[in-house]
Write a structure and sequence with these properties.
By secondary structure, the chain is α/β, with parallel strands linked by helices. The protein is built from 18 helices and 17 strands. The termini are far apart.
Length: 544
């Protein structure tokens, strides 16, 4: 090999060196390719390339756990390119070509175009050895091209192996995500198995109960969770020490919102159904993710322990599809919201107040006129009385009232609210104790000189604010707890079991029993129940 002789002027060049180090995901825990080991090798080998000592290490550019098949996703690689353009470094050294590239096209562009354009020296220690200062033409050689091709093929085969492994795990219902869904956590003994996270699961159950049985809107649920001091899923995961990230994590304020409540109410994982493969990368070179058609998802039933029943989840889905607006200044939806339809046009009826009386009227007739649907209207109090009488009559004639009671209970109508609130108080109290301990530790750090006075004041003010928020949350929960009677859990079910009667209608009971109420022109009702009706007709016009 012919080596270019160095001139005295060239010998006087001060080489400003950037060490590039990468450990890819597929390298795993291979010691020889570890970041620390790469850095040590580069540091030990550097002096032999600069016998005159005319060099300085400007920076080490480290991409840990990043694929080499694309430049755009490597943050430190991009920073190195920016420093080259800015003239901060004029020499790049790597252990071998595979550390810098797993894409032959990127390798060719970088070695043959980009580096020569900015007059940058490139050194690769092994496989093959390259020093463009001694031999600028080596990058065009057959060995370099073949090495680039082999590195790319290795990346392709590794990617294909990983995809096959993921496909096999998804088909068996094994979890392969980085972070478990809210309400679950990875089993410490097997990261592909999900187990219930009891603290978060309690919140999930409350959300479903408040929505299905309590008649609360999604926005009202979010507001209540915030008032109780419950951190949203992102804040909860971070509080547990997980380095959780998502595209909007930077703007996350730790508070619940209506969309975050909606996502929980619509996710079938809480019934035990694992859905994976909803997105995929375009290729091993192009890491952009695209949506996958639903018929190609991997869906496995009973893959994880359920947190809510299928009946409760389906009830939430039905309610989400209906008009269940929240009254102004009220957190609960109207008793019959989304349940009342016109028997003529089959459209939902709207709630209207006139002369201090509330009516349900056909929206088609009101908005489009009598040519499209005749008058269908009923007073709200008459509707409630008729539905209550029908429900009472039906339950009184059932052959198996105990079985019906179990169905009502399974909805559920109302959870053990007192138990839930007691758990919330204990959890907030633990958080308050931790915050107090943190504040005490800050004082010791200041006294020991670990932080200055301004840092202490700023951090203490933040702790004091968190403590006050927790105290207010505890006070609100305690007030709710004090307002509960000892028989707060399942009062409607308890009344039915004791007396064989339902005292009054509630939103939870109504959504558990009734699917749709159809109103005829003369005010007669057809009520479609959610359980098998043993009679074709009951007083008041009830029927299947």
């Amino acid at each position: 090999m012919t080596r270019r002789a160095r001139t005295p002027a060239a010998q006087a060049v001060l080489w400003r060196v950037g060490k590039y180090i990468r450990l890819s995901r597929e390298d795993g825990s291979v010691v020889s390719e570890s970041v620390v080991n790469q850095d040590k090798i580069l540091t030990d080998e550097l002096p032999r390339f600069f016998p005159d000592g005319q060099f300085e290490v400007v920076d080490a550019y480290i991409d840990d756990g990043t694929s080499g098949t694309t430049d755009m996703e490597r943050e430190s690689f991009q920073r190195m390119i920016a420093d080259i353009k800015a003239g901060k470094i004029n020499c790049v050294i790597v252990k071998n070509l595979s550390r810098a590239f797993r894409n032959s096209a990127d390798q060719g562009h970088f070695l043959e175009e980009f580096l020569p354009l900015y007059g940058v020296r490139f050194i690769s220690l092994y496989q093959p050895a390259i020093d463009t200062y001694l031999d600028a033409e080596v990058v065009h050689g057959l060995e370099v091209g073949i090495t680039g091709f082999m590195n790319e093929q290795y990346a392709y085969k590794t990617s294909a192996d990983i995809r096959r492994t993921f496909k096999h795990k998804r088909e068996k219902g094994e979890f392969i995500g980085a972070f478990a869904p809210y309400g679950y956590e990875k089993d410490p003994r097997d990261k592909n198995v999900l187990v219930v996270d009891q603290d978060a699961a309690r919140v999930v159950r409350d959300i479903f109960t408040w929505y299905v049985s309590g008649g609360m809107s999604k926005r009202a649920i979010a507001r209540r969770l915030n008032e109780l001091g419950v951190p949203n899923p992102t804040a909860y995961k971070r509080a547990r020490g997980l380095h959780y990230e998502n595209p909007n994590a930077g703007q996350n304020d730790g508070l619940w919102s209506m969309p975050s409540v909606s996502r929980i109410l619509s996710d079938p994982v809480y019934t035990g159904v694992m859905r994976q493969g909803r997105q995929r990368v375009i290729s091993y070179k192009v890491h952009k993710r695209t949506a996958v058609p639903e018929d190609q998802w991997y869906v496995v039933e009973n893959a994880v322990p359920p947190i809510v029943s299928r009946e409760t989840f389906q009830a939430a889905a039905r309610l989400s599809q209906r008009d269940t607006r929240t009254p102004a200044g009220n957190r609960q939806v109207y008793l019959f919201a989304g349940l009342v339809r016109c028997a003529g046009c089959q459209k939902g009826m709207y709630r209207h107040t006139s002369r201090q009386r509330v009516y349900y009227k056909c929206r088609t007739h009101a908005e489009k006129g009598p040519a499209f649907c005749s008058t269908h209207t009923i007073r709200a109090d008459a509707l409630e009385a008729a539905v209550l009488a029908t429900v009472r009559a039906l339950l009184a004639l059932l052959d198996d009232p105990a079985g019906m009671a179990q169905k009502i209970d399974a909805a559920p109508v109302l959870t053990a609210e007192a138990q839930r609130l007691d758990g919330a108080i204990k959890q907030r109290a633990r958080e308050l104790e931790r915050t107090a301990a943190l504040a005490d530790g800050l004082y010791m750090d200041w006294k020991n000189g670990d932080i200055d006075r301004d840092q202490y004041r700023r951090m203490k003010a933040k702790c004091d604010g968190q403590r006050e928020q927790l105290r207010q949350a505890i006070a609100r929960i305690q007030a709710e707890r004090a307002a509960l009677s000892p028989d707060a859990a399942d009062p409607y079910l308890a009344a039915f079991l004791q007396t064989g009667n339902i005292p009054s209608l509630s939103r939870g009971l109504l959504t558990a029993l009734v699917d749709t109420i159809y109103v005829h022109e003369n005010g007669a009702l057809d009520i479609s129940f959610r359980f098998q009706d043993p009679f074709h007709s009951l007083a008041g016009g009830a029927g299947e």
